[in-house]
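Example 3.2
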Amino acid sequence: MADLETFAQCLTSIANLGANDIYNWYLASTEPSTTAARPSPPNLKINLIYPCTPKHIAKYSSQGVRTVTETPDIYRSHILPYIERNRADGRLNWVFNILDGLTEQEDVVYRSPPSNNTDDDFLLLPDLNWDRSTLTSLHLLCLPNRRDLHSLRDLRPSHLPWLRHLRASVLAATAKLYPALDFDQLKLYLHYQPTYYHLHVHVVHVALEAGATQAVGKAWGLETIMEMLEVMGEVEEATGKSGAGMEGLTMTYGVGEASELWTEVFEPLKREGQKGV
């Protein structure tokens, strides 16, 4: 606590970037301002969660990492119920608040024009870790309006037309917002497991290497997902059998030892000696 109080006393030129529910974002400086009219330029980006939950504390605490393998059976019997629990009790209200125009509208950098099909609507806003100015570290979040897709596991060949439309629209919107960027300077990906279970797409500059957030198994390129769904659709057409889409894949990725995915799902399965963990 003493360290936090000392740290807070060192901050100057604090500027609020935005707030939504329990999440707040600031720019600040640790250098004293020369004059009131000339504050010191920010050298810190501060993300404040208040009040934070034990889940938040676990997520941001130093912890070991385990590699786990999620089979289709494990997904259906363990992960899907976990996802449903994490969508319950208003846990996604902050996402819906943004989509419904209730909060963070000053942070929305693009909202797609109204369409006859609301599933095609989406918005773009800066990721909380981007400074909103350095293009080589560009990081936007695309929040689709549709609410029936929780993670990439829900994607099937039938979603390909929507994904193609979304990709083209997001690239066009980003290039319009930042004319200095070409399409081939952008990469689009989805996380698995994501931080929250409303399907969303990360839009970043190709030069941005964001460590663990783009690790093997964590970040799935949108184009790669679309190609996989294309092949799945061809197999369905050739065999006449409807497949499970991304739900039918076995996925390997890392989880933190303090995360609920490890403590509630994969560690108990490991103790039981279940294959695929």
